[in-house]
Amino acid sequence: MTGRIVVDDLRPRTPGSAHPAKSVVGTAVRVSADIFRDGHAILAARARWRTETEGKWRHAPMVDLGNDRWEAVIEPTALGLHTFVVEAWTDLFATWSRDVTLKHDAGQDIALELEEGAHILSERAAEVDAAGRKLLKAAATALRDA
Question: Exposed (0-12), middle (13-18) or buried (19+): which is 53, by Cβ within 10 Å?
């Protein structure tokens, strides 16, 4: 294990994984994996896939099914070999949101947490398009003014 997030038992696969899994063009394929990490942070994940000849990756969000099992549905649109990967990361905003809600509901001071949330949104604003950037900056300002 090289990181704090583990992705294991990736499916679909054939017994022994000696051969590629098979599907039919236009048929939904369930991609699943066990995904977990140490600590209490909330995870997010997605499945990405492409044909051997495509350069562009397609992606679908994965859903937490419980008990560390995650799943996405992808749909191959061309014949031939496809590559798929599962990516997982710590969802900083979801973790922050859960934690600040718990503190607020417990009657604790959340001024520092509101600034932390504004910082998370401001950092994320640099990674999105102009419309998204405007919304995230407005949300960060609202948190700072709360």
Answer: exposed
Contact 9, 34 (CB under 8 A): yes
Taking phi over 0 as left and psi of -120 to 50 as alpha, with beta for the rest, 66 belongs to left
- Distance (Å, whole) CA 66 – CA 72: 14
Give the domains, in start order, of the chain with CATH numbers: 5-90 (2.60.40.10), 92-145 (no CATH)
pLDDT (tens digit per residue) in 120-129: 999 999 999 9
pTM value is 0.85
Q: Find where tokens 């949101």 sit.
A: 97
Helix axes 111-125, 92-105, angle to 10 degrees: 160
Record the tokens describing residue 86, joined without a space: 């599962």
